Every structure is written in structure tokens, then in C-alpha cells.
């Protein structure tokens, strides 16, 4: 073969390789005869299956909080790139790149290692079992975790089939959940899952008042094989600053240290039975229609009232400050500098939160 022909062969092979991803994406997804109930069951039963992949999550919920809850605003108000290796519930790793930089979480049988790449700090939380009450983290935005969480309490009558899509090179039958609760601000939750394993590959959350998705998460690369143990194992960098954290986050600390006992029912919604009854933070409703009641210490309630007032143009001394961002509604009740406050957040209407605030105890006391 002449030199010219060799180069032509190399160029042809390169062109074919470059075109492969587009060709794979262009292959139509296979239709599935799975019923909505069967697909829902397959998705909920996929917990614990090994996988790895690269995903991107995008949120349209621009929350005006920058102090205690700034990380939550970054998660739900922007784009987060996620790389995951999942071997089991006690052996996984998630690398996340967002507005605040890169952070890696390695989970093993003894707890979590959280490494902040830019700051070169490692936080150790020595608890093998995740607390029932905690703030959302980057790993929760993975399609696998988000999809199962949103569908965990869905009823078969709320589920319907939608068309299949080709995601990360796999055919993924679709499932739509349409909430039946009148107070819900969610129009629909769409989940596309791997036909073979039931692992969710793409999630889309649509609010009632917006034409665009409030939250999406999708795998761009996905494998259902078992990742090697060497990838999830963590050794702290030599020069990293190490620290131990007694609590996963602020919500966990409030739930475990607070002395408040929230009511069993709020605004017509029962307390979620999937969460333990003891604790000061309470979740009401089920599935994608929920509200969370959090008793805040005075210093945190005061700081949050200033931020909400700046965002809405309201008087920070008002007894109630509310804000609606897409399908998410927030209400801060009894937000005065000398008193503790209740923070109510949920995918329910503002009227529902206002009714809930009227039923809560007046100035909850917290252990500090």
C-alpha cells in the first residue's frame, strides 16, 4: 500500500470513529410493551444494582439564598456535571463539578469522605447509614437517585407510559407520573429507564406554571457493569486538611438536637410515614407533592429573612415572608430577630404553606 493510500485509510477510519457517537444516537429507540405498573416496579426495584457513568443535571430554580443554603441554590439553579461509580449502597463515589468547583464524595462502610478539590479539604462523617433528614447533595441529582426518589411513593393510578428514547446508547422506555393531589405544583415527572435493569437514565420535572422543565438530569455515558473497587476507594491527599463532622449538615443537626415536636398532620397532609416520627424536622405529603417544616434558630431565621426580603422587596420584619420559584414555594414564619422561626418549603401552593404556618407552634425552642 502506498503512503498516500495509507493516509487515506487512516483518515477514513478516523472519520468513521468520529461519526460513531452520532450514528449510535441516531439509532431509534426500541419500543417496549412493559405496562406502566410493570415499569414503575422495575424502576423502584433497581436500587442496589451496580453502574457507572457521566450525567448532567440542570435546574431552573434560582433560589435567592447565599449564606447557610448557598450550596442548595447552586444545585437547583444551575448545571452540575456528575461522574459516578456505584458498586453497592456502602461502596460508591460521586464527583461533582458545579458553580462552587469540584467536590468528590466517597462512601464506604464507615461513612463519607468529602473532598473539596479547590480548597484541598477533606471532611469525614463517620456514619455508615445516611440520616433520614438532610439537605440535598449533588449525588441526589443523579438520574438513578432522583428518579427512584421521585417515584418511591407513586401510586399505579398516577403512572402512565410515554414513548421510549435513546439515552447514552440505550433504549429507555418512558414513564410519566401525574400527581393527583390538588395542592401539588408539579404537573408531571417523566422518567426514562434502562430497559434491562430498570435504572433511571433521564428525569424531567415539569411544574404547572411553567413551559420549561424545573429540573432535568440525564446520563450522557452509562454502563451497568460493576466498577472496580480501586476507583471508589479513597486515600486523603497528603497535604489536605482533615476534619471530622458530627452531623451531615444543618438540617440533620436541627432534626436531632431540636426540642420541637411537629404535629402529625399539617395543611391537610399527613406526616410522611417513610421517615421516623421522632425529630424536629417534619416532612408532610408523599411522592412529588411534599412540604418540609424546619424550625430554625433565631440567628439563622434572621439571616434568611434578610435574604428573602432583599429578593422580594418585602419588609424583613414581616411575620411571614414567602417566595415562589417555579414549582417550589418557600415561606418563613415568625421571622423576627429575637424569635426562632419556621421555614416551610415544598412543591405545594402558597396557600397550602400559609395554612400550614397557621397550624405550627409559635416560636419553637431549639437546643443550641
The number of distinct structural domains comes to 2
Number of helices: 8
Fraction of residues in β-strands? 35-45%
The structural class is: alpha+beta
- The shape is globular
How do the helices and strands follow one another from N- to C-terminus?
HHEHEEEEEHEEEEEHEHEEEEHEEEH
CATH topology of the largest domain: outer membrane lipoprotein receptor (LolB), chain A
What top-tier CATH class of the largest domain fits best? Answer: Mainly Beta
State the separation between the terminal residues, measured CA to CA: 80 Å
Report Rg.
Answer: 23 Å
- Across the major sheet, the strand order is 7-8-9-10-11-1-2-3-4-5-6-12
Short descriptors:
5-stranded antiparallel beta sheet, 19 strands, 12-stranded mixed beta sheet, single chain, alpha+beta, Phosphorylase Kinase, domain 1, outer membrane lipoprotein receptor (LolB), chain A, globular, 368 residues, 8 helices
Amino acid at each position: 500500500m502506498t503512503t498516500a493510500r495509507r493516509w487515506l485509510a487512516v483518515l477514513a477510519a478516523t472519520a468513521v470513529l468520529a461519526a460513531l457517537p452520532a450514528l449510535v444516537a441516531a439509532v431509534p429507540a426500541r419500543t417496549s410493551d412493559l405496562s406502566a405498573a410493570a415499569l414503575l416496579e422495575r424502576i423502584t426495584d433497581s436500587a442496589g444494582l451496580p453502574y457507572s457513568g457521566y450525567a448532567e443535571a440542570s435546574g431552573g430554580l434560582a433560589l435567592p439564598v447565599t449564606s447557610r443554603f448557598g450550596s442548595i441554590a447552586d444545585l437547583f439553579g444551575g448545571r452540575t456535571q456528575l461522574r459516578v461509580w456505584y458498586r453497592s449502597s456502602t461502596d460508591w463515589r460521586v464527583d461533582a463539578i458545579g458553580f462552587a468547583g469540584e467536590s468528590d464524595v466517597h462512601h464506604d462502610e464507615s461513612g463519607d469522605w468529602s473532598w473539596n478539590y479547590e480548597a484541598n479539604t477533606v471532611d469525614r462523617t463517620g456514619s455508615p447509614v445516611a440520616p433520614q433528614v438532610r439537605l440535598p447533595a449533588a449525588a441526589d441529582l443523579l438520574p438513578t437517585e432522583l428518579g427512584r426518589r421521585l417515584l418511591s411513593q407513586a401510586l399505579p393510578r398516577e403512572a402512565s407510559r410515554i414513548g421510549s428514547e435513546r439515552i447514552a446508547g440505550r433504549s429507555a422506555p418512558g414513564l410519566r407520573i401525574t400527581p393527583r393531589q390538588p395542592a401539588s405544583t408539579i404537573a408531571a415527572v417523566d422518567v426514562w429507564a434502562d430497559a434491562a435493569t430498570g435504572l433511571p437514565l433521564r428525569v424531567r420535572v415539569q411544574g404547572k406554571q411553567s413551559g420549561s422543565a424545573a429540573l432535568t438530569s440525564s446520563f450522557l455515558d452509562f454502563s451497568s457493569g460493576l466498577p472496580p473497587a480501586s476507583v471508589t476507594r479513597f486515600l486523603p491527599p497528603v497535604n489536605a486538611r482533615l476534619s471530622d463532622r458530627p452531623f451531615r449538615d444543618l438540617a440533620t443537626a436541627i432534626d436531632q438536637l431540636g426540642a420541637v415536636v411537629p404535629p402529625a398532620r399539617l395543611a391537610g397532609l399527613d406526616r410522611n410515614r417513610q421517615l421516623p416520627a421522632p425529630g424536629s424536622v417534619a416532612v408532610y405529603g408523599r411522592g412529588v407533592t411534599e412540604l418540609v417544616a424546619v424550625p430554625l434558630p433565631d440567628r439563622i431565621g434572621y439571616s434568611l429573612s434578610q435574604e428573602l426580603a432583599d429578593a422580594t422587596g418585602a419588609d424583613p420584619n414581616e411575620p411571614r415572608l414567602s417566595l415562589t420559584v417555579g414549582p417550589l414555594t418557600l415561606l418563613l414564619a415568625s421571622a423576627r430577630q429575637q424569635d426562632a422561626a419556621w421555614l416551610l418549603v415544598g412543591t405545594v401552593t402558597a396557600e397550602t404553606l400559609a395554612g400550614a404556618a397557621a397550624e405550627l407552634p409559635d416560636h419553637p425552642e431549639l437546643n443550641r
